[in-house]
Amino acid sequence: MSHVRKHPDGKLRCSWVTDDPVYVEYHDQEWGRRATGQRDLFEAISLEGFQAGLSWLTILRRRAGFRAAFDNFELEKVAAFDEGDVEQLMLGP
């Protein structure tokens, strides 16, 4: 089994990457690169947690919503969320 495949644009990518543009962008721009900085690490850890039971592509497609819900993963802002903020999050999609 090959671990890479040629995509319609002629580029070789990991075999798990579908032709979905969201997946292609993630693979080309982020996959295999170390997350650095507090915000990037917090986002990566959070998204991994939300993935439980879902496909990674599902999480990537909802990434903009996660960023909006969690103040762009600014740790200080999220740490200041109160019960009302958490309740609002629980009611959202």
Briefly, what is this?
The protein is mainly α. It is built from six helices and two strands.
Shape: elongated
Query: Number of helical runs?
Result: 6
Strand order in the largest sheet: 1-2
Care to count the β-strands? 2
Structural class: mainly alpha
Low-confidence stretches: none
Order of helices and strands: EEHHHHHH
Mean pLDDT: 93
Ends apart, CA distance between termini: 38 Å
Q: Give the strand content.
A: 5-15%
Based on CA atoms alone, the radius of gyration comes out at 16 Å
Largest sheet: 2 strands, antiparallel
What is the helix content?
40-55%
Molecular structure report:
- The protein is mainly alpha-helical and 93 residues long.
- It has helices spanning 21-29, 38-51, 56-61, 63-69, 75-79, 83-91; strands at 4-6, 12-14.
- The chain has a two-stranded antiparallel ribbon.
- Strand 1 (4-6) and strand 2 (12-14) form a beta hairpin.
